[in-house]
Design brief:
- It is a multi-pass membrane protein.
- Its main location: membrane.
- One of its GO terms (molecular function) is transmembrane transporter activity.
- The protein is mostly helical.
- The protein has a single domain, classed as Growth Hormone, Chain: A.
- Helices cover about 80% and strands about 0% of the residues.
- It has 16 helices and two strands.
- Strands 1-2 form a two-stranded antiparallel ribbon.
- The protein is globular, with a radius of gyration of 20 Å.
Length: about 400
């Protein structure tokens, strides 16, 4: 597969490691998005309103960001292999716990557990990808596609399982797969020695301390806003399709339409990854931010096919921005700080992204999903402003570092 070309080690150990890292990324996003689709079936079974049930995921998405913060430090202490092993077994057990829940408190607690273990992946996974990359953009783009294909498939697969076997099966199947992968990972990846020692060249930023402070402020603000728009779009997508497509459709078709939109967006990461290796990162940041704001505005102001087209554009831009954010950390942050910086980056983005669930519920109750999409477009405009500021601060002020990363 293409990602193997990004490796520099001569044997198969790094290839196996990267395969598990990419599969883990796919399942990380897949599992977190099971409930937003399964909740439609749960609401029908329990006779409860969608708005009441979707609140149960708040703990999961807050924990997804909150527990990312210590992961970098834990990886430095215990090793990335130990953390990824914990991820596979813990995440699988959490899926089975959700499936076995028989009350609202049990579902909420199991979803919280789900968020805690899901938080492990991104800080260590991103650091492992960057450490092994000879072409940073391509490696991150391929890894991003794995993750976002997981997100893309979540709605369709969940809807199919829930419609055929019941909503609990939608959690049991990935839970068993995760535990099986954990066993295989322990057997096939035996130590931390092949986590990357050469990596792709980093760049230093040549600017004053004041400019660095403004750059950090702009970048972190963009991450805050990006985490919010990412979660709003991915969580609300199935219900937006259900309510704003213009005609009634069955749950399974709703899931597969949502999946198709996610697939279109996810595939953009390959293109963005290749552009990262050729063009200036802040310039791409501006382009992706403008596309995201425009797509969300189009989706908010239309229904039917134009609305779906707007969601495709916005989703493509959101996924492209994820790759860009990771690439900017990989390029501009010194290797000795990278694990911890990724932890902070995902802590900030995912914790604020956890606010998406109550925000969706409140805005939908006030003005429907048009208001949800309009607010998302406004937040995306903030990202665009930050991207323009980043371009102005970074343009012409980078140079290759004196030593390669890792």
């Amino acid at each position: 597969m293409e990602f193997t070309r990004t490796m520099t080690a001569p044997d198969d150990a790094p290839h196996r490691t990267l395969l598990f890292v990419n599969i883990a990324h796919s399942l990380d996003h897949f599992v977190l998005l099971i409930f937003p689709t399964a909740v439609i079936a749960i609401a029908a079974e329990l006779g409860r309103d969608y708005g009441d049930l979707i609140w149960l995921t708040t703990g999961a998405f807050v924990a997804f960001g909150l527990f990312a913060l210590p992961v970098g430090w834990l990886a430095d202490r215990f090793g990335r292999r130990a953390l990824l092993t914990t991820y596979f077994f813990g995440y699988g057990a959490a899926c089975l716990a959700v499936a076995g829940s028989t009350s609202f408190p049990m579902i909420a607690g199991s979803l919280l557990m789900l968020g805690m273990f899901s938080a492990i992946y991104h800080p260590i996974g991103s650091a492992m990808i960057v450490a092994n990359a000879t072409k940073l953009g391509r490696a991150l783009g391929i890894n991003g596609v794995w993750g976002n294909m997981g997100a893309a498939l979540a709605s369709g697969v969940t809807a199919a399982l829930a419609a055929t076997f019941g909503w609990r099966a939608a959690f049991i199947v990935p839970g068993v797969i995760l535990i099986a992968l954990g066993i295989a990972f322990v057997a096939l990846v035996r130590d931390d020695t092949m986590t990357g020692k050469k990596g792709s060249a980093s760049h230093s930023l040549v600017m004053s301390r004041q400019r660095l402070v403004w750059l950090l402020l702009a970048f972190m603000t963009a991450i805050l806003a990006g985490g919010l728009t990412f979660n709003i779009v991915t969580i609300a997508m199935p219900k937006v399709i259900d309510e704003r497509l213009g005609f009634p459709i069955p749950l399974a078709l709703t899931g597969w339409i949502t999946t198709s939109i996610f697939v279109c967006g996810a595939l953009t990461q390959i293109t963005v990854g290749r552009l990262i290796d050729k063009l200036e990162l802040p310039l791409l940041f501006v382009a992706m931010s403008a596309l995201q704001a425009g797509g969300l505005l189009l989706a908010a102001l239309t229904t039917g096919v134009p609305m779906a087209a707007g969601l495709v554009l916005a989703t493509a831009a959101i996924y492209g921005q994820v790759v860009l954010n990771d690439a900017m950390v990989g390029r501009y942050v010194a290797d000795e700080f990278r694990n911890r910086f990724y932890s902070v980056r995902f802590f900030v983005g995912f914790t604020v992204g956890g606010l998406a669930v109550p925000l969706i519920s409140i805005l939908r109750g006030h003005g429907g999903f048009q208001e949800v999409l309009l607010v998302s477009a406004a937040v995306a405009t903030v990202i665009l402003i930050c991207a323009l500021a980043t371009w102005a601060l970074v343009h012409g002020r980078t140079e290759p570092a004196t030593a390669p990363a890792e």
